[in-house]
Amino acid sequence: MLTLQPVNVTGLKSGWEQLSASIIGGGVTALIVLVGGVNLITVPLAVAATLYITLRINWRSMSVIAVFTSIYMTQYIQLTAAGDPSMYLTFRLRLLALGAGILIAIVVNFLFSFVFYRSMMRKRTVFTIEKIVNALNSFKGLVGSVNREEFIKLEKGIILLFGDIDYILGGLLDIKLKKTKDGKTVVFIKKLRELRNINHFVLDMVMLEREGAVYESETGAIHDIILSLNELDRLVTARKASSWEVGEYTGPDKNITRIYNSLQNISNLQH
Predict the structure, then answer these.
(1) Residue 79 three-state SS
(2) What region does 37 belong to: left with phi over 0, alpha with psi -120 to 50, or beta?
(3) 214 CB contacts (<8 Å, ≥6 apart)?
(4) How far apart are CA 246 and CA 243, in angstroms?
(5) Please, which residues bridge with residue 85 across strands?
(6) Which of 65, 78, 212, 242 is the most core-located residue (most Cβ within 10 A)?
(7) Residues 216, 245: contact at Cβ < 8 Å?
(8) Residue 182 gets which letter from DSSP?
(9) What angle (nearest 5°) sits at the alpha carbon of residue 253, between those of residues 159 and 153?
(10) What is the C-alpha to C-alpha distance for residues 229 and 32, in angstroms, rounded to an integer?
């Protein structure tokens, strides 16, 4: 299930990480169990050692797979033809089961990415735009407010969006490895990078406003930014290849100026 990804390249990388983590988790557990058997000391010791090793080599996302393998190795031990417990057979079964799951997931990933990856790029770009628009609308409603809790809630939502954008960009960079002929993947990557910058500038605005009302005179500019993003949303959704006029901002605020610069950079790309 962890290997199921919207892009087959991402699934391959995830599968390799899981396989590597399983080898470490299974190997560490097999060694400890061979020395001390299965008991109240060796089982938690094997899990702890596996977790420590995977974290030390910076495999935080795959530590869960290694730990699961470690637990599995002590809960379903295979027997030889003579009836003796065999860590080798247990380890082999675990890797075969994992390999079968990865292979199935890779086939599904290939079919999915082949059919749907173009619409996926558009839908995830639209998702990002709409999240930023929602944040700006919320911010516009909070300008001049002293409700600190609402500001903190908004900041947390904006920060979470960075993770979403980075995840989407990771998938698009994997798609880029497929070397699509029309170069649309590169365009979407550039758009999303500019949208990430905009999200950063919006976060700065929210934090500044929370510390002391500084955007009461800029609500009109914020409204214009929302209108521009809504127009971009419409163009991406409709798959229209047309020019997009952003407008200008001549006010003093640096963050709004930066947002307009990013919008202008997006408008220079083909939609």
Answers:
(1) strand
(2) left
(3) 208
(4) 10
(5) 79
(6) 65
(7) no
(8) T
(9) 25
(10) 58
The DSSP bridge pattern shows strands 78-79 and 85-86 to be antiparallel
Per the document, the length of the chain is: 271
* Distance separating alpha carbons of residues 86 and 95, to the nearest angstrom: 15
* Residue 233, CA distances (Å) to 43, 129, 140, 176, 237 in order: 53, 6, 19, 23, 6
Q: Terminal CA-to-CA distance of the chain, rounded, Å? A: 34
The 10s digit of each residue's pLDDT in 39-88 is 788 888 888 888 888 777 766 556 677 777 777 777 777 788 888 778 88
Q: Which residues pair with 86 in a beta bridge?
A: 78
Q: Is 78 helix (H, G, I), strand (E, B) or coil?
A: strand
Distance of CA 222 to the CA centre of its chain: 28
Residues of the chain with pLDDT under 50: 181, 271
Distance of CA 191 to the CA centre of its chain: 17
Q: 203: closest CA among 145, 123, 259, 267? A: 259
Nearest to 165 by CA among 186, 192, 135: 192
| 6 in Cβ contact with 117 (< 8 Å) | yes
Amino acid at 30: A
Under a CB-based contact definition with an 8 Å cutoff, are residues 122 and 236 in contact?
yes
